[in-house]
Design brief:
Largest sheet: 3 strands, mixed
Strand order of the largest sheet: 2-1-3
Structural class: mainly alpha
Strand content: under 5%
Number of strands: 3
Shape: flat
Radius of gyration: 36 Å
Low-confidence stretches: 1-22, 427-444, 447-453
Length: 453
């Protein structure tokens, strides 16, 4: 780089560089070249674009020096490329620093760098974030597409494969496969038809009502209706079982079917009901809480909503930070539990009989809940409690910024994907293609061939 600077300084201070109209050196060869990019002409010294070899501009310089018409004062090359991007690229040859224009999208500037033969790793740190952000955006947009459409596309491929085999099957088998495909769309795609919408609405209502009755039967006022609740539970389980069996029979691929977490939620939602008939023990009654898994069946209707995808990806992207936060949370929990135990040990009666029992106090204090079942009574213990509460405020505030930033990021990507219009394949006449190729490549390529000969 020092050699490059000395070369630029000596080149700039040479008297020949202050010439206004003479484009020729003393030996008759040109010392300047005109590069016309998209109608914008850029004139520079040949020595400038020779600073970085094995680039398109260095090839232009070599072609200009070996030009048969080197005696001519005008040495111009035309390229049908982006003129704004080329200005930054030419400045890189002049200064040795590559900057990305703020008003140009990253993929466009990346294409220009590839065309002119420059390495993107030469980008200055101040512009790298702006240049590279399009890759993060494309990655997240593809991720949303895969999350929303991956399972759907896999199912459609399996259905198409089954339909393709219909020609070689008997009529009753064709009818069976068509019925399975139609039934699968009704159960799996709530918005595919009016019948599918009605089925999804009915299933949604049954899930909500079953969870509601499960909660109501724990109230004293409804204890006398336990027999009615039991009959309703039989109806709910019969419906859930029928729905599960219909999905199992109509699924295009058992492998994909058992990969879905919703499948296991459906199975667990009726597990306690059938175990109670088989085992007849009190241990099975404790599994009644498994009925709450039915609430997770609601995700079947919300899994394709962009909002659910945003929340899921936010938690996924924040997982490492949240795990680190949990580790950071455990350290002061142990520290303050130990301090408050020894601070309150000599004061009887004490709520802190051991350090592990003090963990509960440290957790509710750092989360600013403060149930009041365990409180320090001595002066040193109260000081420890105040320090614990202040430390908890700082720790609890940390995940808010991390999760909030990721949520805003993924929400913007989700909105961009929703509002993004469908692309149309552009048509380009073959004659125009040849014209673009000739105007862009022919001038330099022909001269390079002569050099290699």
């Amino acid at each position: 780089m020092e050699k490059y600077k000395n070369h630029c300084q000596s080149d700039a201070m040479s008297p020949g560089n202050f010439a206004t109209n003479n484009n020729l050196e003393s030996d008759g060869k040109p010392n300047r070249v005109i590069i016309n990019v998209g109608g914008t002409k850029h004139e520079c010294y040949i020595s400038t674009i020779l600073n970085f070899p094995d680039t398109r501009l260095s090839w232009i310089a070599e072609a200009a020096l070996n030009n048969e018409n080197s005696g001519s004062e005008r040495n111009e090359f035309f390229f049908d490329r982006h003129p704004g991007c080329f200005q930054n690229i030419l400045n890189y040859f002049r200064t040795g620093k590559l900057h990305c224009p703020n008003d140009v999208c990253g993929p466009l500037f990346e294409e220009e760098l590839i065309f002119w033969g420059l390495d993107e790793r030469m980008m200055e740190p101040c512009c790298w974030s702006n240049y590279n952000q399009h890759r993060d955006a494309q990655k997240n947009l593809k991720m949303f597409d895969s999350l929303i459409y991956k399972t759907k596309e896999d199912s459609e491929e399996e259905i198409d494969a089954m339909m393709f085999k219909l020609k070689d099957m008997k009529p009753y088998k064709q009818l069976l496969i068509k019925t399975r495909a139609h039934l699968w769309n009704i159960l799996e795609e709530p918005f595919s038809s009016y019948l599918a919408q009605a089925t999804a609405l009915l299933s949604l209502v049954i899930i909500i009502v079953s969870v509601t009755t499960f909660c109501l039967q724990t109230m004293k006022h409804f204890k006398k209706y336990n027999s009615i609740f039991s009959k309703l539970e039989n109806v709910y389980c019969a419906i859930f079982t029928l729905e599960f069996l219909l999905r199992l029979v109509s699924c295009p691929s058992l492998k994909l079917f058992f990969k879905e977490p919703i499948t296991y939620f459906d199975f667990l939602s009726t597990l306690q009901f059938y175990l109670s008939y088989v085992l007849k023990s009190n241990a099975v009654d404790s599994l009644v809480v498994v009925r709450l898994v039915r609430l997770l069946r609601l995700f079947r209707f919300f899994k394709n909503l962009s909002g659910m995808q945003v929340i899921g990806q936010t938690l996924k992207a924040s997982f490492k930070e949240l795990m680190l936060l949990a580790l950071i949370f455990m350290i002061p929990m142990v520290v303050f539990s130990t301090l408050v135990y020894y601070a309150e040990r000599d004061n009887l009666p004490s709520d802190f009989e051991s350090i592990p029992e003090a963990f509960w106090w440290a957790i509710v204090s750092m989360t600013t809940v403060g149930y009041g079942d365990m409180v320090p009574r001595s002066g040193p213990g109260k000081i420890v409690g105040a320090m614990c509460a202040c430390c908890g405020i700082l720790i609890v505030a940390l995940p808010v910024s991390v999760v909030g930033r990721n949520f805003a990021l993924f929400y913007s990507y989700a909105q961009a994907r929703i509002k993004l219009p469908k692309k149309k394949n552009p048509t380009l006449i073959s004659a125009d293609k040849n014209l673009v190729y000739d105007s862009t490549h022919k001038v330099v390529d022909t001269k390079l061939k002569k050099q290699h000969r």
